[in-house]
Amino acid sequence: MTTASDRNPGALLDRSDERLKDRSGAKGAIRGFLDRVRSGDLGSLPVVVGLVLICTIFQTLNPVFLSPNNLVNLLFDCSTVGIISLGIVCVLMVGEIDLSVGSVSGLASALLGVLWVQWGWPVALAMLAAMAVGFVTGCVYALLLNRLGMPSFVSTLSGLLAFLGLQLYILGPTGSINLPYDSPLVNFGQLLVMPHWVSHTLAVVPGVLALALGYRKAQRRQAAGLSSRSLGGLLLQAVAITVALELVAYYLSLSRGVPWMFALFVGLVVAMNYALKRTQWGRSMTAVGGNREAARRAGINVRLIYASAFALCATLAATGGLLSAARLATASQQAGTGDVNLNAIAAAVIGGTSLFGGRGSAYSALLGIIVIQSIASGLTLLDLSSSLRYMITGCVLAIAVIVDSLARRSRVSHGRA
Amino acid sequence: MAIPDAPPTTSRPPVLSLRGISKNFGAVSALTDVDLDINAGEIVALVGDNGAGKSTLVKILAGAHMPSSGSITFDGQPVTLANPAAALKLGIATVFQDLALCENLDVVANIFLGRELHPLRLDEVSMEVRAWTLLNELSARIPSVREPVASLSGGQRQTVAIARSLLMEPRVILLDEPTAALGVAQTAEVLNLIERVRDRGLGVVMISHNMEDVRAVADRIVVLRLGRNNGIFLPGASNQELVTAITGADDNAVSRRGRRTAEKAQGEQP
After folding, report:
1. Could you give the CA distance from residue A188 to residue A79 in angstroms, rounded to a whole number?
2. Which of A122, A141, A412, B137 could be a cystine partner for A310, CB 3.0 to 4.6 Å?
3. CA distances (Å), A190 to each of A81, A234, A339, A387, in order?
C-alpha cells in the first residue's frame, strides 16, 4: 500500500484527502443524507413522503383503507403489475422504453388460456410457452434497435397494437376463457398465503443478512485500510429492518397473511437488485444508460446489453400477465389493456428510476407499485368511477416525472448527474 | 525502470516503431510515408496544424484505423493493429479527447468499467483499493472515489481517464489533446501527471495544439504537416522554429514578431 507523503499519514485510504468532509457516525450520516437530498439525489424519499400522504388522506376518508384485509388484497394486486414494472426498470436503466408490456402480458394470459384450457397442455408447459413468446418479443425489439436503429419508442408502440391484435385473434370470438378455479395456479393467484410462522421467520432474514454481510464487508474494508461502517450502526439498521418487517407480518397476519405471490414478487425484486448492483451485467446496464459511447469504448457489448434488457422486460411482462390471469381466474380480451401499461411504467418512475437512463433501482418497482395500487385501492374504496381514477393516477404520474426532471436538473448543477 | 530524459537516440530499440505509414481515404491521402519511434520512458509530442494527420496517426496506433501501407513494429516484432482490442492487448492504451467516462458512475466503477473483478459478485473492496493505489501512484488529487464522475473537475476527469488506461499495465499510452479545455492549474496538474506516467517507464504519445504544454513535458517533438513528417525537434527548439515547421511558412505572425524582437534586441545590445 502506498500513501503519498503529502497526504495525512495513518489516515484511511479513502479518507486522507483534507477536502473530504467527515461523514462518519450518526451525525455525519444524517448530514450526508441532507446534502444528497439538497443536491437532487432524492432516491426513494419522494415515494415515502407520497405514501405517507396517500395513507393519511385515504385513511381519514375511509377507515377500511389501512385494515389488514384491504392491505392483503392490495399486496395481491401489487404483485402482478409489480413484476411487469420490474421489467420496465430494466429497459429504463439502459435509457429505452417498452410501451407494449401491457399487450405482451395480455397476450401471455391469452396464450395460457388457449394452450392450457382449450388445448389441454400441462399448465407448466403453457406458462413456459407464454414466457418464451415474451422473451422472443424482447429479442425482436432489441434486433430492431440494434440492427435497424428503430427507436424503442416506435417499435414497442407498434408492438402494443400488434400484440393486442394477436391477443384478440387467439382468444377468438368467445373473448374470454375461464381458468379452472381449483387449479394450483389460480390458488396461487387468489388464495395462497404464508402460514404465520413462515412469514415471521422470513421477516427476520433480511435483518440478519444485512447484519452478517454488512459486518463482513466492514471487516474486509478495515483490513484493506478503507473506511467502514461501525458495528453499532449495522446493528441499529438490522434491528430497525427486523422490527419493521415483523410489525408488517404481524399486522397482515391479523387478516389472511402475506400472499405467496407477493413473496415471489419481492424475491424477484431482490434478485434483480443484486443483478443490477453487484454484477458486471448490472454495471454494464448502468453504464450503457449513462453514456452509451463510453460503455462501447470500455469494451461492453452494448447490443447484447440492450437485448438482455428488452428480453428480460418482455419475459417479466409475460410472467406478470400469467399471474394476473391467475389472479382473475380468466384470460380475457381486457387483460393487459387499459391502465396496465401505464401503471407499470408509472410505478417504475414514481419509485425513482429515471426516464433518462442510467439511474434507478429494482426497489423502485416495489415502492412505485405500492403507491399506484394504494391510490387505485383508495379510490375504489371511495367508490369513485374509473374516469376519476384515471385522472388522478395521471396527475400522480405527472408529478412524479416533474420531480424526476427537477431533481435531475438539480443533480446536474450540483455535479451529481 | 524509469529513464527520465532518455536521449532520442537510445541504444535500446523503441517500444513502438512506425515505418512508411500511409493512409488514404478515397482520393485523399491523410498520411504519406510517416515514420515515428516511441521509446519507453519518453514523451513524444505529436504536433501539427488541423488536418495534418495527427488524429489519423493516433487512430492507427489505437487500432481504430488500418494503415493503407507501411509497417508497425512493437518490441521489434512486426504487428498488425486490426482493431482497438488488438492494440489494447499489445499494451497500447488510448485516452481520447472526449474522455468517454460515465458521469452517473463513480470513479471506481469508471476505472474498472468493462473489466470488473468477479463479474458475478463484484469485488468492490479490491477494486476500491486498486483505484486508490493507482491514483496515489500518480499522486492524483481526487477527494473521493465513491462520488459520481459528474462531480469532478475537467482535470480530475482527465486523471480518472488516464488512471483507467493504466489499469491494464500498458507499455505505450496515447493522449489526444489531454490539456484542451482545461484551466491553468488543471493543465499543470495534468502535465505533472503525464510526467509521472513517463517516469513509470511508459512510452507516452501526446497530441497537443499548445506549444507551451508541449515544450514543458515533451522529450521529443514530432511535427506533421499535410500528412508527412516535417521534422523532429527537441524541447529547446524555439517557438518560431516549431511554428514554421507546422505551418510550412517562413512568414507568419510568430516569425515576424520573432524577427522584430531579435532586431530590437540587437539594436539595444550591439
Report:
1. 12
2. A141
3. 15, 38, 21, 27
A92 CB-contact burial (10 Å; exposed 0-12 / middle 13-18 / buried 19+): buried
Q: How many domains, chain A?
A: 2
CB count within 10 Å of CB A2 equals 10
Measured between beta carbons, which residues in chain B are less than 8 angstroms from residue A6? 139
In whole angstroms, what is the distance from residue A203 CA to residue A249 CA?
7
B220-225/B203-207 β-pairing = unpaired
Predicted complex: ipTM over 0.90: no
Structural domain including A236 reads: 193-258
CATH code (residue A324) = 1.10.3470
* pLDDT tens digits for range A63-114: 999 999 999 999 999 999 999 999 999 999 999 999 999 999 999 999 999 9
Write out pLDDT tens, residues B34-54: 999 999 999 999 998 888 888
Residue A117, all three cell numbers: 384450457
pLDDT tens, residue by residue, A81-90: 999 999 999 9
Same structural domain, A142 and A266: yes
Full strand arrangement of the beta sheet holding B16-25: B28-38, B16-25, B69-74, B77-79
Is A27 within the bounds of a domain? Answer: no
Scanning B96-115 for CB atoms below 8 A from A yields 96, 98, 100-105, 109, 113-115
Beta bridge partner(s), residue A177: A331
pLDDT in the model for residue A2:
40
Q: Which of A225, A280, A294 sits opposite B102 (nearest CB)?
A: A294
Last residue of a domain, one of A241, A258, A275: A258
